[in-house]
Write a structure and sequence with these properties.
Layout lengths: L3 E2 L2 H21 L5 E5 L5 H17 L2 E5 L7 H13 L5 E4 L9 H7 L11 H8 L8 H12 L8 E5 L6 H10 L3 E5 L6 H5 L4 E4 L17 E4 L3 E3 L2 H8 L3 H10 L2 E3 L12 E2 L6 H28 L4
Parallel strand pairs: 1-11, 2-3, 2-4, 5-6, 5-7, 7-8, 8-11
Antiparallel strand pairs: 9-10
Bound molecules: NADPH dihydro-nicotinamide-adenine-dinucleotide phosphate (NDP).
The site of NADPH dihydro-nicotinamide-adenine-dinucleotide phosphate (NDP) has 25 residues, from helix 11.
Length: about 325
């Protein structure tokens, strides 16, 4: 039986409508969530990403502020911008769009973001809170993967989960979230021995590698759930043929545009898996929805406690 396709668009729109509802409720009680995006320079891909984030804010009723320092901005100038945003009460989330220019010390800039407003969940305080199961802002992509599993009613507790990739942004927080949800977790990386064999242990297999079509059927336990986080652009016709020969829709797209997007999994894994996220249209669709959710969560955690704290004497 072919795998169930876990449609990211459906989950993303469910999450967005829940977030919009909460924004309405919070705004009615005087706390309108706000997100500031810092976009440095003119990188076209970054401009596209930030534009979609600002648009999502508009759709959901979240206040947004876009700050666009020039490419020449120094580390100190960017830290100053972040500190000003930390001090603004109407800003609940601060997003510094990566990559920053090569001359900037990105780690120092990200560390300057107040953990309370760190909607990307990258700050060591949030990493620590997640790992010790305290309330935290959690990185958007792995948080989106968890939403897919929950909303698709895929069992996590007691299951074997194998994650390929150990980045701070995806692999490691994913491992923490699955551990907190009582899966038995294995993290793999470029030095892992017998990778296909280790991956075949996974009832849940998360691919976050950045290599087109790397995970083949040989890596998949029959019936496993596969979350394909990878987003890779291919332009090489030989590679295209290897993965998509006979797929008429893709062939038409490739002929017109000369490129297509593939995940870290070979599309043929659908023959072996029980459920799979497609690329495009899978995990990636949830990332912005989760960012919006984190902005609302940040507003709730920072401002509602303050309201409640003054309430008794009011
Ligand atoms: P990184 O490059 O930071 O990490 C890649 C990880 O994969 C590393 O841990 C690396 O191991 C491991 N790896 C690389 N090659 C192999 C190999 N041959 N065998 C086993 N492990 C390997 O990538 P990210 O985590 O940032 O991103 C991963 C993918 O997810 C990319 O395609 C990216 O575009 C995509 N992505 C998608 C998002 C979305 O919204 N859907 C958001 C973020 C990322 P080692 O540590 O040993 O080097």
């Amino acid at each position: 039986m072919p795998a169930t396709i876990l449609d990211g668009n459906t989950y993303a729109s469910q999450i967005k409508s829940e977030v919009a509802e909460e924004v309405r409720r919070l705004t009615a009680s005087g706390v309108r969530p706000g997100l500031a995006a810092v976009l440095v320079g003119e990188n076209p891909a970054s401009q596209t990403y930030v534009r979609s984030k600002v648009k999502a804010c508009e759709e959901l009723g979240i206040y947004s502020d876009l700050i666009t320092p020039p490419e020449s901005a120094t580390t100190e100038e960017l830290i100053e911008i972040v500190e000003q945003l930390n001090a603004r009460d109407e800003i609940d989330g601060i997003l510094v769009q990566l990559p920053l220019p090569a001359h900037v010390d990105s780690k120092r800039v990200l560390l300057a973001v107040s953990p309370e407003k760190d909607v990307d969940g990258f700050h060591p305080v949030n990493v620590g809170n997640l790992s010790t199961q305290r309330p935290a802002l959690v990185p958007c992509t792995p948080a989106g993967c968890m939403e897919i599993l929950k909303r698709a009613n895929i069992a996590i507790e007691g299951q074997e989960a194998v994650i390929v990739g150990r980045s701070d942004i995806v692999g490691k927080p994913m491992a923490m979230l699955l551990t907190n949800a009582n899966a038995t977790v294995t993290i793999c990386h470029s030095r892992t021995k017998n990778l296909p064999e280790v991956c075949r242990r996974g009832d849940i297999l998360v691919a976050a590698i950045g290599r087109p079509g790397f995970i083949t059927t040989e890596f998949v336990k029959p019936g496993a759930t596969i979350l394909d986080v990878g987003i890779n652009h291919i332009t090489d016709p030989v590679l295209f043929e290897r993965f998509f020969k006979g797929d008429e829709k893709r062939e038409k797209q490739f002929a017109e545009k000369g490129r297509t997007i593939i995940g870290d999994c070979d599309p043929r894994v659908v023959r072996m898996a029980g459920a799979v996220t497609p690329v495009p249209g899978g995990v990636g669709k949830l990332t912005i929805a989760m960012l919006m959710g984190n902005t609302v969560k940040a507003a709730r955690m920072r401002r509602l406690t303050a309201v409640e704290a003054v309430a008794p004497s009011a």
